[in-house]
Amino acid sequence: MSIQRRLSASGLALALCLAVGGSASAAAPNAPTDFVGTTQPFASNAIYFVVTDRFVNGDPSNDHRHQGGAHPSFDIPVHGPNGQTANIGYLGGDFKGVLENADYIRDMGFGAVWITPIVDNPDQAFTGGDPVKWGSILTDRGKSGYHGYWGINFYRVDEHLPSKHLDYAQFTRGMHAAGLKVVQDIVLNHGSPAFSMPVKQPQFGQIFDADGKLIADEDNLPPWKLDPVKHPLQRFYNAWPDLAQLSNNDDQNPAVLKYFVGAYLKWIGEGADAFRIDTMNHMSTRFWAKFAAAIHARHPGFFMFGEAFDANVDNLGKYTWKSGGSMSLLDFPLKDAMRDVFEHPHSDFGKLQAVLYLTNGPYTNPYRLVTFYDNHDMKRLDASDDGFIDANNFLFTTRGIPAIYYGSEIGFERGKGEHQGNRNYFGQKRIDAAPQSPIYQHLKRIAQLRARTPALQRGLMLVERMHGDQAAFYRVLQHDGTHQIALVLLNKGDTDADFAIHRYLQGGHWKAALGGADVEVPAGGTLHASVPAHGARVYLLDAIARQPELVAELTRLMTERGHPSGVYTH
Question: Where is the Glycosyl hydrolase family 13 catalytic domain (predicted)?
Fold first, then answer.
């Protein structure tokens, strides 16, 4: 639908509502059957993201502490000022450590766990590239593949992760039994570091098939020296560098697509519930459309979201369009705005409204985006406890699917980048002590609320106000027999704030779902509420939307929710 037609449709809806002169009963028949942000089932889940090796060492017998020979890969500290340390070696986290803490994650209010790539990585630490220093970026000399993103065989699980009687399929079954879905991080753009080694190391720059046969080898050559005509094993790669010294897989080579489709169909068959796709914007939309089609041909509706590490929204939408596979994305523009607002007390809530893109934005569906404020590839949120609490109150009530990086529930290593402690070992002691943290306590409260409130998971978002330290907005879900209107009131100020909500407000019995007391609002009335400092109030009305102004705005949001260049994806 063109923008002009969308605007005409929304104008018609508004005219219809105004024409009834405020009659609620007359307005309802003109409303769409559905008011829904997304029908994607995965949107019901908030996501807890762990770097598996850094979460909990549940089974020391799979640590392989002496692996690597002259280039050992276990426990390689990076020293910083004032006794601070990071680490670029394996530290022992594994499937068992995650599974044994499934209840901890679920009890916080999460429905899914995103784990770093599970595929086989090199056995040694890398000897090429630039040396890792405290705070350095894209430096890999001396680093191991503890993070999982240096795949050499995408059909095999790395030996540091499974335990006896706990392979990947058994792990996913255990997580499902605990009430958690598994999001598997996948990589297609690159494999392991491939060149600049003083002496070629085994496995680096190589890729093996399901039978262990070598099918690609960069042979320690810089990309511009590859000769795929003479050397068939070099045909897997592009002839130009991409990230650091990583191999750069050729997305125009049909063998590349075939290899990765086969690998990732295998892991879906062993229980993966969704994919997070690494470095998505380093490969073409044409490639992603083919990959998505191959996955969805076998598993219709399988949820995938990509990392396009770019704050320029004009570069992002195409990955969500049909021409790019109709997949979802990590919401980097909103991430940047959240950091700006919640790292700086009394920043303007309006900065967040500007990047929600609720109407005619760049995405086919903004409600399917995965929202976050930090992760393993950037500095952790550098906020006070109150800043974390405010960020979580917003993240779990706004549009999108929230994702929290491990340790953020206690403010772990706040403000630290990759080689400054961002990926440090978390451990069982911190998990056991986490309930004492005020960040954890408030996160659990708001995350559990989202987990039991359909409107916060999948409802349309209608902003009443976002200014200064206050935000007020509705989330409305009217779909498949569910009729729920949520009113969210947020206060990130240091003192209590009084709200008087009249605009779009429908009369009825509003139940206090988070703090406060139930409120009976007459038709045309006002809801008054006091929201504590760095607090939230959420009220629910389980009713069909009938208030004329509300219906008109919801109709407009439904009409304009996706980008005209994309085919809207529910």
Answer: 49-450
